[in-house]
């Protein structure tokens, strides 16, 4: 709290002999109960209470002072006068002192009227600069009464020059009107709709200075200048303030202020109430629709904005039209008459509250369409304009609105026909026609078929079907022969092929054409692809035997049927002939190259593959027993099961495999010795027994895709040693025996000489 005391300088007492009800003179002998003030808490420094009697730059007396030279520029000192809540007209009077010896500004002194519970806002009065070495008096005419409460806050702000003094004294609350500031009449609240202009009219009574400024202060501190000031009489005037196109953001508390050097007039705070025009949240609800009317429910229980609602209206228009109409509504349901059938309308609800601009935006629209009327009848005049084997072109009368009775309609052409020879299945389809079409071509039909056609006209309210008309398509080329109907029997050099008539002959079959060509072969001697050959068959011949083909060769067969319109689609299949057994280039059984008691050397010649290359060669040795049936060259049975010498001995077999040779090892004729005691691919070739006779066979094997073919030929016979040899064999044997006897005789001579030498040596010894 501040100090109390009386004032002793000029102008400190009230005018007209009235006394103040409260105040601060800051004199030592002043009444303490009449002065209540407090230093600010959020400022930078405090006001200083001084008692100046002899200081040259300061006036005489006791008062509050700020020495600018002792503080930093921009620093503030706050003084808060006691809270006031008056019942009648009153005036707050104060004296101030602002002086600097060199004329510089000591700072700025401002007064704020702070309504309890609100914001401080903007200053209602202020002064700055140096005003000479004397006191000045100002008044605050605050038109705020009980139960409202306010306080006056004095603020001193140090200037940038930091020279001089600011003084404050004789803060007095007077119980009569101010003479230097006008008093405002009570300012009432203003309510407007959003988007409108808000106008405050402030009426003031009293004497206004020529330089009086009229302002409107917002609670947050914003300031609005007066739009106009009109003098009603010499002591009454009207100030008008206007806020343009207000919104919810401008809703706040506002007050009127007059400002001059002598003081300020301050009105009460009035509220600017901004109401939002109402708008329905939900669109109207459709209750019933007819061909020329719509019954709707307004659905205005939930709104956005403010009430009260004083008027309801329906706004409707065609969705595609430029016009709109507004109907006033006094019930929750409404029926729109005289509408066009099958037309889409956009219907919204308008709500209005009191005041200008009280009509809100149209609510969410209901988009609804009137119903259609049932079509008059189905289109007539269905006829053909062109008939082909697989398509049918039809036409009918054009459609008009008097027939469809609806802007939205569907014109469908439906057709059906039997499929299959037994007429047990039906294909049917409905095609939607384009708008205003009266001609259509049905495609992908079957030849020689009765096509049942009818027209259907429909809209949302009903449908009309025309009478069914039958048309027949023309014949066409036959359908393709089913690939699964092709059956065949392949042999080595011929193929038996059979097929069935097309499922869809599409007329009379006159001919079958079969073409074939070799496309792949495992026999390198066959040239692929080969020439293409063609065979024609009569309509009742559905099979053919193809001869003179290459073994192991794949042929591509194509079969197609023909009618008077031409050939149909081709059925394709690939057939591979069987491979044949290899062939040998041996004439009569050849003579062996050489022979001994346990071996025989023969000449092996490469075989010729037929349909598949040679995969393996085999040499088979068979014991030639007297009771065994002799095998003829080229006509004997071959040896499909491999049998080693050991297996043959254990099984008592008369033959065994003496060697197995890969095809790559025999690209040309080569000699081979049977009985050379070697092993070939796991088969032992043991020496032959001299006392036994043997037959030597040469076997070739071809293997292709799991199919195996064998051929064998007897290439030699070795007789037992006790049998007479052929002349060539006898002469060869005599030469061998002579050589052996000569060697034996020479050995005996050498032995006799050695024995004689030994005897002579013994005797001499």
Automatic annotation (TrEMBL):
Keywords: Cell adhesion, Cell junction, Cell membrane, Differentiation, Disulfide bond, Glycoprotein, Hydrolase, Immunoglobulin domain, Membrane, Protein phosphatase, Receptor, Repeat, Signal, Transmembrane, Transmembrane helix. Residues 280-375, 378-476, 477-583 form the Fibronectin type-III domain. Its main location: other. It is an enzyme of class 3 (hydrolase). Residues 182-267 form the Ig-like domain. It catalyses: O-phospho-L-tyrosyl-[protein] + H2O = L-tyrosyl-[protein] + phosphate. GO terms for biological process: cell adhesion; cell differentiation. The chain crosses the membrane at residues 737-762. It is a single-pass type I membrane protein. Its EC number is 3.1.3.48. SMART domains: FN3 (SM00060), IG (SM00409), MAM (SM00137). GO terms for molecular function: protein tyrosine phosphatase activity. It is found in: Cell junction; Cell membrane. Residues 1-40 are annotated as: Disordered. InterPro entries: ConA-like_dom_sf (IPR013320), FN3_dom (IPR003961), Fn3_PTPRU (IPR057598), FN3_sf (IPR036116), Ig-like_dom (IPR007110), Ig-like_dom_sf (IPR036179), Ig-like_fold (IPR013783), Ig_sub (IPR003599). Residues 22-180 form the MAM domain. One of its GO terms (cellular component) is anchoring junction. Residues 1-23 have a biased composition (Low complexity). Pfam families: fn3, Fn3_PTPRU, MAM. Belongs to the protein-tyrosine phosphatase family. Receptor class 2B subfamily. This is Receptor-type tyrosine-protein phosphatase U.
């Amino acid at each position: 709290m501040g100090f109390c005391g009386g004032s002793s300088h000029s102008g400190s007492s009230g005018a007209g002999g009235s006394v103040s009800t409260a105040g601060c003179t800051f004199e030592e002998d002043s009444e303490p109960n009449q002065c209540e003030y407090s230093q600010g808490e959020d400022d930078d420094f405090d006001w200083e209470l001084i008692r100046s009697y002899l200081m040259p730059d300061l006036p005489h007396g006791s008062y509050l002072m700020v020495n600018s030279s002792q503080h930093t520029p921009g620093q503030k000192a706050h003084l808060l006068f006691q809270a006031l809540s008056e019942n009648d007209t009153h005036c707050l009077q104060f004296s101030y002192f602002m002086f600097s010896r060199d004329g510089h500004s000591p700072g700025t002194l401002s007064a704020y009227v702070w309504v309890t519970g609100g914001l401080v806002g903007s200053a209602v009065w202020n002064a700055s600069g140096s005003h000479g070495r004397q006191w000045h008096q100002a008044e605050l005419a605050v038109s705020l009464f009980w139960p409202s409460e306010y306080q006056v806050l004095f603020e001193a702000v140090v200037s940038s020059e930091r020279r001089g003094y600011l003084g404050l004294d004789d803060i007095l609350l007077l119980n009569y009107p101010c003479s230097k500031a006008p008093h405002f009449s009570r300012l009432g609240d203003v309510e407007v709709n959003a988007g409108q202009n808000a106008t405050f009219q402030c009426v003031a009574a009293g004497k206004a200075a020529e330089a009086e400024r009229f302002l409107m202060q917002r609670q947050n501190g914003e300031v609005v200048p007066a739009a106009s000031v009109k003098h009603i009489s010499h002591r009454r005037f009207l100030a008008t303030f206007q806020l343009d196109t207000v919104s919810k953001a401008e809703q706040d508390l506002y007050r009127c202020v007059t400002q001059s050097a002598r003081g300020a007039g301050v009105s009460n705070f009035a509220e600017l109430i901004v109401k939002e025009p109402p708008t329905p949240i939900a669109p109207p609800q459709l209750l019933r629709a007819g061909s020329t009317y719509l019954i709707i429910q307004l659905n205005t229980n939930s709104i956005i904005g403010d009430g009260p609602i004083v008027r309801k209206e329906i706004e409707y228009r065609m969705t595609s039209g430029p016009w709109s109409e507004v109907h006033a509504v006094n019930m929750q349901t409404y029926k729109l008459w005289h509408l066009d059938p099958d037309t889409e309308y956009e219907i919204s609800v308008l709500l209005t509250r009191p005041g200008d601009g009280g009509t809100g935006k149209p609510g969410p629209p209901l988009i609804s369409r009137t119903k259609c009327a049932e079509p008059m009848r189905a289109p007539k005049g269905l006829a053909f304009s062109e008939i082909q084997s697989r398509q049918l072109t039809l036409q009918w009368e054009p459609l008009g609105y008097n027939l469809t009775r609806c802007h939205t309609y569907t014109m469908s052409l439906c057709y059906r026909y039997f499929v299959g020879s037994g007429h047990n299945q039906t294909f049917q389809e409905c095609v939607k026609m384009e708008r205003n079409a009266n001609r259509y071509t049905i495609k992908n039909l079957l030849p020689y078929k009765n096509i049942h056609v009818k027209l259907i006209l429909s809209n949302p309210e009903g449908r009309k079907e025309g009478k069914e008309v039958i048309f027949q398509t023309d014949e066409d080329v036959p359908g393709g022969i089913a690939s699964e109907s092709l059956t065949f029997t392949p042999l080595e050099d011929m193929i038996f092929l059979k097929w069935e008539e097309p499922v869809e002959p599409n007329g009379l079959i006159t001919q079958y054409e079969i073409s074939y060509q070799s496309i792949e072969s495992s026999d390198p001697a066959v040239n692929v692809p080969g020439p293409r050959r063609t065979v024609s068959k009569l309509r009742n011949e559905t099979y053919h035997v193809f001869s003179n083909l290459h073994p192991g060769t794949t042929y591509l067969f194509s079969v197609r049927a023909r009618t008077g319109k031409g050939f149909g689609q081709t059925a394709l299949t690939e057939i591979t002939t069987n491979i044949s057994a290899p062939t040998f280039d041996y004439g009569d059984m050849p003579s062996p190259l050489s022979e001994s008691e346990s071996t025989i050397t023969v000449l092996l010649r490469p075989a010729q593959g037929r349909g598949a290359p040679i995969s393996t060669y085999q040499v088979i040795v068979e014991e030639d027993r007297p009771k065994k049936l002799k095998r003829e060259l080229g006509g004997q049975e071959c040896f499909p099961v491999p049998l080693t010498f050991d297996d043959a001995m254990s099984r008592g077999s008369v033959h065994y495999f003496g060697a197995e040779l890969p095809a790559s090892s025999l690209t040309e004729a080569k000699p081979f010795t049977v009985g050379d005691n070697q092993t070939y691919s796991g088969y032992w070739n043991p020496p032959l027994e001299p006392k036994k006779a043997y037959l030597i066979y040469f076997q070739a094997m071809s293997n292709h895709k799991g199919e195996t073919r064998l051929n064998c030929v007897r290439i030699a016979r070795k007789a037992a040693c006790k049998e007479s040899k052929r002349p060539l064999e006898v002469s060869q044997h005599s030469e061998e025996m002579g050589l052996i006897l000569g060697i034996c005789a020479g050995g005996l001579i050498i032995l006799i000489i050695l024995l004689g030498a030994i005897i002579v040596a013994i005797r001499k010894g």
